[in-house]
Amino acid sequence: MDFDLITNYDVKPIINFLDNNPSLWDKDPDIDVHNAPNYKSLNHKYSPSLDLLIDPIVEDLVKIMGGKLVQRSITLLPAQEDIREHSDAVNDLRRFHIPITTNEDVIFYCGDSQINMKVGQCWEFDYKKWHKVLNNGTTHRIHLLVDLSKDYI
User: What's the domain range around 50?
Assistant: First the structure.
């Protein structure tokens, strides 16, 4: 499995919230973990209002997939930037991506596969394989990332 489509979520309330609160991104200005100079992540800096929008998605994903929440974050990859090829060495997690905003020119590569994830789709992928993201579009790519433990409830 390089990519596995799990389910779909209505992310319009999250889109609207982020559109109306652009200053949230200013709280984490220098995240450069993937050699993408303008990549940003809202790790534990959500407002309570954003938490209320994200919590039902995370709870549903835990219910569907089992395990326990380890981490969640919202990431922003600007237009015309990419995340360099890398692999993640954390073995006891399952990683899920849920696009909040994207465009047709965002390509996610993993192993021998590549896809264009659509808004609201929930994808699991094998993050231990080499993967990268190219945003060749004119708009940001924003994803909700959810990491669950492999400990089933």
Answer: 3-136
In a domain, 150, yes or no: no
Query: What single string gives the DSSP state of each residue in 82-134?
Result: EEEEE-----SEEEEEEEEE--TTEEEEETTEEE-PPTTEEEEE-TTS-EEEE
Q: Is the dihedral of CA 103, 105, 108, 111 positive or negative?
A: positive
Does 89 fall in a domain?
yes
pLDDT of residue 152: 55
Q: How many CB atoms lie within 10 A of CB 24?
A: 18
> Which pLDDT tens digit goes with each residue over 87-114?
887 778 899 999 999 999 999 999 889 9
Residue 58: strand, helix, or coil: helix
Q: For residue 133, how many other CB atoms are within 10 A of its CB?
A: 23
Q: Is residue 148 part of a domain?
A: no
Total tally of structural domains belonging to the chain: 1
At 113, which CATH number?
A: 2.60.120.330
Segment holding 77, helix H or strand E: strand 69-77
How does pLDDT run across 135-153, given as a tens digit for each residue?
999 999 999 999 999 875 4
